Model the fold of this input.
Amino acid sequence: MPDFQLNDVPLLSRSALDRAEHLRSDEQALKEGWPGARVLRMNRRGQVRVEDGSILLEPATTLAQEPVDEAVFVGVEAGRHLWALRDNDLDGELMDLRAVGGALHLDDITLGVLSTALALLNWHDRAGYSAADGTPTAPANGGWMRISESGHEEFPRIDPAVICLVHDGGDRVLLARQHSWPPKMFSLLAGFVEAGESLERCVQREIGEEVGVGVRDIRYLGSQPWPLPRSLMLGFAALADPEQPLVFSDGEIVEAYWFTRAEVRQALAAGAWGAPTGLSPDAEQQKLFLPGSISIARSIIESWAAE
Done:
């Protein structure tokens, strides 16, 4: 099997944001930084305001004169503190993380702000009560911790998930479509890691459950945060025999096919499904659409197709 590696760092893994962990527990420093800080407002759908092709960051003092409990501290950029806040009354031009990745050319700091804010706010939405004793929790440490009435400390959770490009060692790759996806939209196989399970065993189990295919020579490629709502995607490649019958036993996959490298390259050239900039004029004739650039799936597929 040829050595297959990612050609580039996945988009959401390029974050250059200074997370400034040392400031989170320093209430005085956070207060002193608040007058010059900027706040990102985000609704429950993960959408943010966009103006003139840029993500809108508002002066923190338009919100309050000092840090508020519902805001989370995401980091520092050029000496300026950056915060995020849940706001379900946003208006104007709104975009979520998927749309932003396809429509705007954002720098690595802004991408880090978006993905960190989304992950933190999603966690806070679900962490209002302690998992240890059921009592209400309150935010602390700039939003990086919650403390229950009994003093139990809880921290943001992430859910590890594997995503794997299954290929035959030559010019074919196995792509699948879930029930909820549009027709012709295919991607890599993925699934969450179970308790007590290694990443490699998870790759084997998930692919076996979803399409009934056994894989071997599992190799790690790279990772990417995926705060939808709070995952970490761990990318792999694996070999499989395309003569194995496809069996959709767990009900998650509605169809899957082996595509040639030429077909994948043609689909990549046509654009990405759901991209605000649109697909190529002849995209309707395509039999295959692929994920957008914000996903590690596209990075893995592009790297394989370039071999």
About this structure: Confidence is low (pLDDT under 50) at residues 275-281. The CA atoms of residues 11 and 294 lie 6 Å apart. The radius of gyration is 21 Å.
